[in-house]
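Weekend entry, working from home. Most of the wet-lab plans are on hold until the incubator is repaired, so I used the time to fold the two sequences that have been sitting in the queue since the last round of cloning. Logging both here for the record. First:
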Amino acid sequence: MSDTVRIPADLLPKDGRFGAGPSKVRQAQLEALAQVWQSYLGTSHRQATVRDQVRRLRTGLRELFTLPDGYEVILGNGGSTAFWDVATFGLIQDRAQMLAFGEFGAKFASGVKAAPFLANPDIIKADAGTAPVFAPASGFDTYCTPHNETSTGVAITPTRVNQDSLLLVDATSAAGGLAVDMREVDTYYFAPQKSFGSDGGLWIALMSPAAIERATKLGAGERWIPDFLSLTTAIDNSRLEQTTNTPALATIYLMAEQVDWFLSNGGLNWCTARTGESSQVLYQWADAHPLASPFVSDPAHRSAVIVTIDIDDSIDATVITKALRANGIVDTEPYRKLGRNQLRIGVFPAVEPDDVRALTTCIDYVIEHMQ
């Protein structure tokens, strides 16, 4: 196969961006930002111009996720990686049980394990492409898991383990694209560069009253917490519709635009219907193709936002992705550390299902024109 295969223009998707993050940013988001850039970008984040957008974002997220009474939308500087440290200092009281079924869950678990002020966590691992389950036991004050593993395309259903412990869910690639019952979760945290079609530099945490209480208790205790990672400081500032330090202003605006777009179309139910349709197009294509198969064998754990498809060893998947990229179809490469001969395709809500159908046609075309 040659990476110079030219796919006929009438077969190409209208938009060829299928990244797992950063993901597709809609033109309408940028046009909206362009209308306000002079009065918004480069202004103080302590003033109403920016605080109004933070309020708009927090209000929209509260509605999008149908937050129960007492839950709060907290945001701070940094991405999900920063929030791992925020949670390590400010939410885990002593000992956690953690699920690790991919690169990102494993990174959080390793950080908690290295914390000298916490007891050794119980880390339950699963092979790539599968998902583990919690093993509830006394002594765990916190349970931690990804909702969706970006590296492998495995998703689980967040479910509270017990009423005495917090459940923390890393939702970076899930939030806005997968269903969640927030009554089951104490902290649902994510970054803007996946379903929300924005850039990095921000973390968002949807927190229950119990999580707020835990953070307040730990923040007032004897544990040393770096100022930048102080969850109580982030809570206090969020209640003022601002972040502790200067945030990425474009990130906030683009994300607020996306949340409003979700709500105008029907909210989270509309989002999950879109991702469900797009992902099923890919899974059904892979199931029917003689040279492809879904990487995640259990349909119950197949992600609706990150689809991973194994390619038969008779074909080099990197040649497919290079040929697609040469035709303007980008970011279908697999997660680098997984090391598999596969495609990884992001189908967040902004991706049009018809573009996903066109993608499968283009993959077929490239395979058929092997040299």
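Second, folded right after the first finished:
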Amino acid sequence: MYLHLGNDTIIRKDDIIGIFDLEGSTVSGRTRDFLASAEKSGNIVNVSAELPKSFVLCREKDGFRIYICQLSPVTLIKRASQMNITGE
């Protein structure tokens, strides 16, 4: 099953480690450091054409990838939950 993040980006739902609120989670210095390190190593994909609201941490074969998204975490979680209910 897949989750649409916007701007023609779809990820496998099984690969999702977590969905995070960008504004709330970047209050922590550790999260800011983690995101900065991921950006330097090329592990961030920005799929937001507008102001980003969330980031999705996904496992990859060689580590992880972070998707910066314009959708709120609540919207993404609802989309993921609806996929379970409808069986898509």
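Plan for Monday: verify the second prediction. Residues 58 and 64 are 6 Å apart (CA to CA).
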